[in-house]
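[agent] plan:
  1. take the single chain provided in the ticket
  2. run structure prediction with default settings
  3. attach structure tokens to the ticket
  4. add a short note for the reviewer (M.T.)
[agent] executing step 1
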Amino acid sequence: MVIVHVYAHVKVEYVEAFRQASLENARESLKEPGVARFDLLQEVDRPTQFALLEVYRTEADPAKHKETAHYARWRDTVESMLEEPRSRTKYRNVAPDDPGWETPGA
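[agent] step 2 finished; step 3 output follows
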């Protein structure tokens, strides 16, 4: 498993638009065979701060995700909504075991 956390600081006037665009991207991402999870999180105390928790089955799957039309649409849509460029951190799974990751709604 490859786990990616993407962090986005959104301009206050775009919080809802970012949320909607990101929900659509998450729904479409879950249809990709290489995606085990794709969660959208919004910080409670700072609602302009979002995180995407992306869990991919193989090392190649994050790159495949970036080739999809829905990712390109999301990227182009939200770019002007951000206070600063997105950042990301890649992780290696430790626990639960890889089979313990399940796609919500599957």
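[agent] step 4 note for reviewer: The first strand starts at residue 2 and ends at 9.
[agent] ticket updated
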